[in-house]
């Protein structure tokens, strides 16, 4: 049994973490997290829907016809810091001295592909003019220019973009002005997440950046409102300290900092299920902060979102009708069969072989459980070699088969059968979700009841030169939504434009 000191108890209290939660983390480290059991990859015709142009138009029209009566929210995970995006540039500043080496010699010596792309595309970055204004135009060499450019971009006493949240960096250039991802999300929200001239957006951010986001909204909000004719209601939340997870040493004892305190680490994006659970709307769109396109692609992106929302509303309508019937006790044999077929065909629910031999009252209870769940429609793009979670049919520890978004870290790559299933995947998840979180009576589900706690991650890290094990909570669109009803739909590649590295800004989808 772990003995907690008085200091430990106070630390837990200050974070809002119970002793039981902490002991649960230790137990998870001891037991390990099992790999998922893939049945097969979800593909077109078996887990992924693909619509014709005509069907898409009909779904868009259906969604548009319902808009005025809908309470809509756009939920944007936006706490990502830009430091990772500039990783290659920070490394370049440490590794290159323009006084001792030409840029060409550095590139040949290091084969640094990111700096090659960065230096070749310098003038196409949205922040080019701003940096050049600061560093001037007099340089001894191309290497000095690139070095000074990077130093100004990241320097503490200059632009300091490495400290910024990713959502507040200039991503796109339109004529003489630039736009941040935050601003692009506002514009996008007007196209598909606005109703009756209003659009509501919720950003999950780091507490230290709240003022910066508030300033950006004051600066860009009125202009976007004027251009779109939409009034914006924007609010924020922070990842809760109570979702931090314990780190342990290699003996599964709590890892202690040099001052003796227990080390807790942020629990990853799965912690945001708590933030999402505090939101309520008829429809919630979820999309990461860095996944924005320039406005020339905005209509295609908006249409794709409307297709997903159209699917959601159509299936939800039928699900609500059946849920109400089950509650009224009016389900005869034929109705039970209809509901079972709807769940299986439309919501990808799988039933055990014993279902058909059960009594009608047992069947009704099972159907009530299966139909009264939040629904998520997830866009899937064809896999073009980008990293990211993929759509699979998975069997859980209870023997239940369902559609899930699985990360490669959850798959046992030493198992050739599982590795082969991964190779057969044709699509991956661009974090493009449309969610329904209310039951047919309009009551919001408690989303924390639909999390599969066994879908977290254990990773190895180091701190103060010592090895430790860290725990990530089940991902927001992975295990945190494992027990939702799920539909996967193919969406066009134009909807997927993440910026993981600064050089991604040179892609066509970020060039106005």
What characteristic shape results from the CA principal axes? globular
Structural class: alpha/beta
Average the pLDDT over all residues and give the rounded result.
Answer: 94
Summed up, the helix count is 15
Largest sheet: 11 strands, mixed
| Percentage of β-strand residues | 15-25%
Number of strands: 20
The low-pLDDT segments are none
The span between the termini is: 60 Å
* Radius of gyration over all CA atoms, rounded: 25 Å
Helix content: 25-40%
What's the helix and strand layout?
Elements: H1 6-15, H2 19-31, E1 37-41, E2 43-44, E3 47-49, H3 53-66, E4 72-77, H4 87-95, H5 103-110, H6 113-120, H7 128-135, H8 142-154, E5 172-174, E6 177-179, H9 181-192, E7 194-195, E8 198-205, H10 210-228, E9 231-238, E10 245-246, E11 264-265, H11 272-277, E12 283-287, H12 298-328, H13 333-346, H14 360-371, E13 375-382, E14 390-395, E15 401-406, H15 416-423, E16 427-428, E17 432-436, E18 457-463, E19 466-472, E20 485-490
Structure, explained:
It comes from Maribacter dokdonensis. This is DUF4301 domain-containing protein. The chain has about 500 residues and is of the alpha/beta class. Helices cover about 35% and strands about 20% of the residues. The chain has a domain of about 80 residues. Strands 2, 3, 4, 7, 8, 9, 12, 13, 16, 17 and 20 form an eleven-stranded mixed beta sheet that branches. Strands 1-14-15 form a three-stranded antiparallel beta sheet. β7 and β8 form a beta hairpin. The longest helix is centred in the middle third of the chain and has 31 residues.
Q: Main traits of this protein?
A:
eleven-stranded mixed sheet, Nucleotide-diphossugar_trans, 512 residues, 19% strand, alpha/beta, globular
